[in-house]
Design a protein that fits this description.
Largest sheet: none
Order of helices and strands: HHHHHHHHH
Radius of gyration: 28 Å
Shape: globular
Strand content: under 5%
Number of strands: 0
Number of helices: 9
Distance between the termini: 56 Å
């Protein structure tokens, strides 16, 4: 209904014009105007928090306390419990490979995912490293170097985000893969040549951790300088 009496609608031209204008207003209110259409499209295009990518991220977060419990069960040295802990760690690392890919491929990126995904990554890796060091399987300095680098780079990304985003490099992806393999080998109760192999894999992970960390610092410095220069140039143009 337009809210105009039938008698008025069928009367003078002015009344008909009023009825037509009110009908157009009703269309706008119903969301069929161009502005309403854009708002409706934006609402449809916004990905739900309960999508497959975020569910995988939440699964990884849930696995963290489960992994710690399995890792420390029966004193932390039982091969059977360590194997179960490795399985939980492997599932967490696999979901890390898929959730980001699914979010980008199927447009499932959400604010929750942007925050929760890096937290889940750091949580499972940090829990594994701390458990290994607490059990005496891994020197504490290795844990400090890896976790210090991860937390430092994350903080640095937030500090320079006003100037731009530092993209993930191939070296960074190789570092993540090497860390996952090395930590996974340490979680398992390996002996013999496999125990020797895991030492060298961890050494490679530490080297990649430091090298890629320094590269990210360099990128952040360059990005900040470029951002400051662009702002100064824009400011000078505005004054001119």
């Amino acid at each position: 209904m337009t809210g105009v009496p039938a008698s008025a609608a069928g009367g003078s031209p002015q009344a008909k014009e009023a009825a037509a204008s009110m009908s157009a207003a009703d269309l706008d209110d119903a969301g069929r105007s161009p502005r309403g259409g854009k708002l409706a499209a934006a609402a449809v295009n916004q990905a739900s928090v309960w999508n497959i990518a975020n569910l995988l991220t939440m699964l990884r977060l849930i696995l963290v306390p489960g992994f710690v419990a399995l890792m420390l069960a029966d004193g932390g040295y039982d091969p059977a419990w360590r194997s179960l802990a490795w399985a939980a760690f492997a599932v967490a690392m696999i979901t890390d490979l898929f959730d980001g890919h699914l979010a980008r491929t199927y447009d499932l990126v959400t604010d929750f995912g942007k925050i929760a995904d890096p937290i889940a990554d750091k949580a499972i890796m940090g829990a594994a490293l701390i458990c290994l060091s607490a059990l005496g399987d891994l020197p504490w300095w290795v844990t400090i170097v890896i976790l210090g680098r991860e937390l430092g780079i994350t903080l640095m990304r937030f500090l320079v985000i006003r100037y731009g985003v530092i993209p993930a490099s191939r070296g960074g992806k190789l570092k993540t893969l090497t860390q996952g393999v090395a930590v996974g080998m340490y979680v398992l109760a390996l002996t013999g040549w496999l125990a020797t192999l895991r030492f060298w894999v961890m050494a490679a992970a530490v080297v990649l951790t430091v090298v890629t960390g320094l590269d990210y610092v360099r990128q952040a410095i360059v990005l900040r300088r470029q951002g400051i220069a662009e702002r100064e140039a824009a400011s000078q143009e505005t004054r001119a």
